[in-house]
Design brief:
With 257 residues, the chain is of the alpha/beta class. Helix content is 28%, strand content 23%. It contains seven helices and twelve strands. The longest helix is centred in the C-terminal third of the chain and has 16 residues.
Length: 257
């Protein structure tokens, strides 16, 4: 039996909820080819070795490898180690960046608690395409590493006007706007109160256009704020903004979604 201190050293794998619809001790599930190659070839695990598996509905379970081959295998659930733990939803709307930077946003956003990614095309966006499967894989890998139980959703690419037209009026969209003091007389405080379901908007490299900034400032559900006097890279701004909003969400009740 693996002690609690030893659990953290076990491999941790996300399982598709469809593969374990009703988790219980003794239940089995297949190991997808990519994970089988990772366990068997990279980690050199064999039948009988233990792993941790998770998805949002089942929480996290200790499991053992029932059998494993080159690109296939199966797991047997043993016992639950963490029950499902709903977290306050947090949305991140961000203008698409170059591939490596977008990958980094998905990875860091997953680690910082984003529940839904909303990739955008703005006036100064340099790319308009993403690979949804690739971004999902990055989110899964980040969730496995940071020990969260759920995998964030990645929405289809949309324009900023579309996002604003569909944004729920009961949720606040905190927009990080550069040189905010030059556009409004409002105080440039960091987000004062964050509720479950609120979101963060980060523009592209080069910032949002003046027209986009004015559009945002006219929307009643948009709360503009500043990330400071320094001009940040877009991916750096994502981390700074999420750190501020995440701090406000730590005490937010999940029931307020």
């Amino acid at each position: 039996m693996t002690g609690m201190n030893g659990l953290s050293r076990l491999p941790r794998l996300y399982v598709d909820p469809a593969l374990v619809p009703v988790p219980h001790a003794g239940a089995t599930c297949p190991i997808p080819p990519e994970q089988a190659r990772y366990l068997g070839t990279v980690l050199r695990r064999k039948a009988g070795d233990q792993v941790r598996v998770f998805h949002a509905g089942m929480g996290e379970w200790l499991a053992s490898i029932a059998d494993i081959r080159k690109d296939r295998g199966s797991l047997a659930l043993e016992r639950q180690i963490r029950p499902p733990q709903p977290r306050p939803p947090l949305q991140l709307a961000f203008a698409l960046l170059k591939r490596d930077a977008t990958d980094l946003v998905i990875r860091m956003g997953t680690e910082l608690g984003v529940s839904t990614f909303l990739p955008l095309v703005s006036e100064r966006t340099n790319t308009h395409r993403v690979n949804p499967e690739r971004l999902h894989a990055i989110a899964v890998e980040a969730a496995e590493q940071c020990e969260r139980l759920d995998i964030p959703t990645i929405a289809p690419v949309q324009t900023l006007p579309t996002l604003l037209g569909q944004w729920p009026q009961t949720s606040t969209l905190f927009a990080a706007i550069e040189r905010l003091g030059e556009r409004t007389a409002e105080p440039t405080h960091t987000p004062p109160q964050v509720r479950a379901g609120d979101g963060l908007l980060i523009g592209p490299e080069g910032g949002l256009s003046e027209a986009e900034c004015q559009t945002l400032l006219q929307r009643p559900f948009v709360a503009p704020f500043s990330l400071g006097s320094l001009v940040l890279r877009a991916d750096t701004a994502v981390v700074a903004g999420l750190a501020l909003l995440g701090n406000g969400l730590r005490s937010a009740p999940v029931s307020s979604q």
